[in-house]
Amino acid sequence: MPYSFDDVWPWTTGDGANVDTDPTRYGEDVILELGSTRFDVTYRALVMGILNRTPDSFYDNGQYWEFDDFLRKAEGLVDGGADFLDVGGVKAGPGDEVTEQEELDRVVPAIEALRSRFDVPLSIDTWRASVLQACLEAGASLGNDISGFADPDYLSVAADHGASVVATHIRLAPRVPDPDPIYSDLVANVVEFLTDRAGLAEAAGIPKERIIVDAGLDLGKTRMMSWELLHSSAPLASLGYPLLLSASNKRFLFELLETDRHDIEAGTMAAHTVGICLGCRVLRSHDAKAARRTADVAARILQLRAEASTAGAV
Fold this sequence. Notes:
This protein is of the alpha/beta class. The chain contains eleven helices and ten strands. Helix 3 packs parallel to helix 4 and helix 10 packs parallel to helix 11.
């Protein structure tokens, strides 16, 4: 079906009613556990710093492929305010084949080096259960799986290690081109998928506090579909799991702004602000400092709004 900005803006439903932007839609004291660290994300969104161990990532195109450069990037993310770091050894989009052993060789030493240098939780961006297991044993505490747990062993590995997981919506599979995606009802389909995957995670023995959901912007979505899902963050947040927003420097932003993906920091921060106000509580970002500042300002606004609502109800 065709999409236009009129379909997704302003923040109203199809019948013209205002979208619920109440930050307490999760309930009180929303907790996200990553390893031994407990985060209160009721108002304060976390910053997930992106670290690519790939020579062909869509954004940095191998800029941090050399290990010393990779570690300097990690230090910059932590100094900029990243709450945790996400390491990936295979890009999501089409490209040269990366074998399981190649992925292991890229990411396991990276996790080990980061664990020895930084006191923040570590995430491994992989859809392979074998890679997840090796990285959890090396010091990671979160499995970020953009395949929607396609590997049948993924959740059992995570549960056995007491790890957290990200359930991401994707229509086909990682690395498979999907230029013309079709959905019967985009938001409803994504809600159904994420509800199912989060349920599978809980059934595998992973506590709700260790499950994150992600709508998968630009993964099997057109530009306007990504905008619609950003606009529909509130019903996704209402599923009751912390909602991850992966909008940083994505195609739907730089195509709108008609500029290079390296010149859209303001667009990314605008998307982050909108996402937080609609319930997103994890920002996956290339620029931790900007994301942290955005999240802190938004948290203060949400706190004041909640306080005003409470005072008005007395």
